[in-house]
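Consider the following assembly input.
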Amino acid sequence: MLFFRSEERVRAWCAARGAPVRPLVTMDQLWRMAVTWYSTRLEGESRRPRVDEMRAVFAGIGLEGDFWDPTADSFG
Amino acid sequence: MSVEFDVRVKMAVYGLFAETGRRPAPEEVASRAGLDSAQVLAAYKDLRAQRLLLLEPDGRTIRMAPPFSGVPTQHRVEVDGIEYFANCAWDALGIPAALRMPGRVRSRCEESGAPLVLEVGRQGPEASAWRFHCLVPAARWWDDLVFT
């Protein structure tokens, strides 16, 4: 889970490694993910989101498909 | 181990990370939680199962208490004068989110090495064209969390 300066940099990095280009995430989307996972982490009753909650969070910020499905066993 | 003990240990681990920016030893956690070290190590196993903690192979040293990293990484986050290490790009934003305070993320572009300095306010990061990319699909994130 890495930072890149631009989409072009992601494509160059993946091409150099023969790796697939996965869905790109903006800083605003990443903030939403960070808040969902961690904003209550220092509280006693906090927990990681459940699978259905993860799907809803990802879908809510436009991240859909098998790549973002915590239970998928194939990835397009 | 009881749920109550697990919560006390979790609160101690995360509280000490938040206060110092570094991983606490089991003895420090035990002192904070009012338990003994054996009870702390037993709770660590439960917290690992809940995906709230990742341990080193010795079973007693904390590698990750997400979003905090127990070891130095390329993702540094400064909040209220304390420097933290994050496990990954996601966790770099997760530290200000967890602490509910503004912070400054320092990292780099993995391809070009260009430095990233990102100011993060209480409502989120400043406008930025930078991108986050992850090779590993969500279903496999915890297969090898260090690689992910």
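The beta strands of chain B are 54-55, 62-65, 68-69, 75-79, 82-86, 103-108, 115-121, 124-125, 131-133. Ask yourself how this observation constrains the way the partners meet.
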